Recover the amino acids of this structure.
């Protein structure tokens, strides 16, 4: 194989490896963290203490209860204030953290069932479009109702507690996610392995391996930067497309919690890639500056014996 062919092949393998690295990280995150119940619960549990999430849930529960109340405007405003205060107070209790944990587990199971199986989420009850996956806050609403009754709020014991739900995944998003989920499950393992194999192959076939290692490191760092841009762009698009009744601050807190691992991977790829590239460049410079070993002195040639007459 000529040097030109080896150089071209090494460049192609290196580029492919650097492109697959961030894509493989994204697939592995979706499969091994978001789709894994214990890891998902560990990510979502701290959000029970987030002030923006608490405020959004208190607003949602208060709005859900007020939709079921039929009273005049003066009394309605009083009930709204009491309901919001009671809901906000409840979000600071251990019972709320338990309810939050239970609701998230149910929503996570519903999402996985919907994307892995062709079940009841394919069609609505009337045979129309698919149904979204919702987070049910009815247990929180029931507790708030009891608190209102203890505070002697008028007609509190008559408030019907409906299923106050927050949309986790829309029907359109669910269809798209189901189409790509099975591909992600396969890609989550093979893309990182393929990236490592391509990077190793690119270095092995290179005519100048230090330069190939440096290029691989720079490409890895660039892939990490692209992954960081994708995470930031995804956050912007997610918050820009929220329903009007969803708090952007709470949605941002949830998005940041779910993508924390991706941000860590982003910095990891940047750091590892830059370190490898710098090390390869420094060793190459040192090798050029090192003086070449002195050549051994030439061996004297023996003159043939002259035949004396």
């Amino acid at each position: 194989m000529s040097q030109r062919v080896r150089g071209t092949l090494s460049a192609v393998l290196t580029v492919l490896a650097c492109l697959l690295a961030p894509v493989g990280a994204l697939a592995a995150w979706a499969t091994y963290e978001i789709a894994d119940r214990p890891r998902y619960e560990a990510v979502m549990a701290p959000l029970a203490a987030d002030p923006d999430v608490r405020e959004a849930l208190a607003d949602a529960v208060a709005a859900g209860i007020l939709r079921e109340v039929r009273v005049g405007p003066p009394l309605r405003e009083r009930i709204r204030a009491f309901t919001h205060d009671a809901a906000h107070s409840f979000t600071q209790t251990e019972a709320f953290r338990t309810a939050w944990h239970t609701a998230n587990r149910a929503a996570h199971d519903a999402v996985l069932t919907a994307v892995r199986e062709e079940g009841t989420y394919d069609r609505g009850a009337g045979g129309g479009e698919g149904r979204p996956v919702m987070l049910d806050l009815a247990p929180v609403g029931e507790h708030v109702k009891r608190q209102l009754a203890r505070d002697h709020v008028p007609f509190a014991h008559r408030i019907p507690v409906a299923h106050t739900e927050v949309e986790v995944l829309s029907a359109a998003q669910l269809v798209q996610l189901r189409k790509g989920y099975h591909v992600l499950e396969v890609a989550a393992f093979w893309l990182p392995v393929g990236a490592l194999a391509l990077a190793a192959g690119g270095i092995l076939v290179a005519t100048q391996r230090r330069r190939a290692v440096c290029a691989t490191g720079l490409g890895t760092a660039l892939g990490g930067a692209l992954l960081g841009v994708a995470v930031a762009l995804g956050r912007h698009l997610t918050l820009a497309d929220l329903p009007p009744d969803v708090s952007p601050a709470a949605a941002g807190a949830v998005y940041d919690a779910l993508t924390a691992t991706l941000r860590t991977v982003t910095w990891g790829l940047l750091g590892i890639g830059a370190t490898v590239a710098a090390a390869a460049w420094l060793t190459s410079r040192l090798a050029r500056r090192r003086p070449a070993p002195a050549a051994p002195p030439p061996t004297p040639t023996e003159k043939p014996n002259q035949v004396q007459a």
